[in-house]
Amino acid sequence: MRKINILSASLTIMVFASLNVSAQIKLSDIFKKVTEKQGTATAATGTPSTFEIGQGIKEALQIGVSAGADRLSVKDGFLGNLAVKILMPPEAQKVEKTLRGIGLNKLCDNVIVSLNRAAEDAATEAKPIFISAIKQMTLTDATNILLGNKDAATEYFKRVTTAQLIQKFSPIVSTSLNKVNATKYYSDLTTQYNRLPLVKPVNTNLTEYVTQKAIDGLFIEVAKEELKIRDNLSSRSSTLLQKVFGYADKKKS
Fold first, then answer.
1. pLDDT (tens digit, 9 = 90+) per residue, 149-169?
2. Rg (CA), the chain
3. pTM for the whole structure
4. Which of 187, 209, 220, 214 has the alpha carbon at shortest distance from 121?
5. How far is CA 206 from CA 28, 76, 140, 185, 197, in A?
6. Strands (E), 114-160
7. What's the DSSP call for residue 47?
8. In angstroms, how far is the first alpha carbon of the chain from the final one?
């Protein structure tokens, strides 16, 4: 009987010790998690260094321009997006209205579709140009963008990439316009219109027009991405972005 009591007591001590160790491990895990969360919260707050601002802005802009360019460079990227869809050139809108009025809707539709397809082709070349501009950005540029207006990054891109985009896009647009028959469709459209009595002949440089509209569309999409990361906390996907843009929020409040 005494042996049984001793054995029972020993088992009780062992179980208690095991439970105590388990409790200590659990408490240690909880403490570790709390510490990690506190560390993350601390890292995401405070005043970022100039270097962190530069890295944060570059990270945010790379995410933004990649998303914007990718959306536009696929089929219907322009055509299916009302904010950037390319319509008839201004001088041809009267032409379109007149020709639709006499039943030539298909001809007008062919022109519009082909103009947008050309822009979608050109948009595939935009991302490397934007990424290069981001890499060349100075720390002063980054700080000015962070603390500037909500379109400060978009304005920066307009300033430093427009000439390169025009140079890169023009030959692509020109080739694409021929590939998708835009030049032929537009020629057919203007020929039909110019045959009508008492109309002023219409001449448009399609390459220049589509190139500019494609670039305008890119900047519209970049501006959307810029606004998203400035205003939407969930878009700040890293500790660095949270710290940098959180600091900007405080500075502007």
1. 999 999 999 999 999 999 999
2. 30
3. 0.75
4. 214
5. 69, 19, 39, 11, 24
6. none
7. P
8. 78
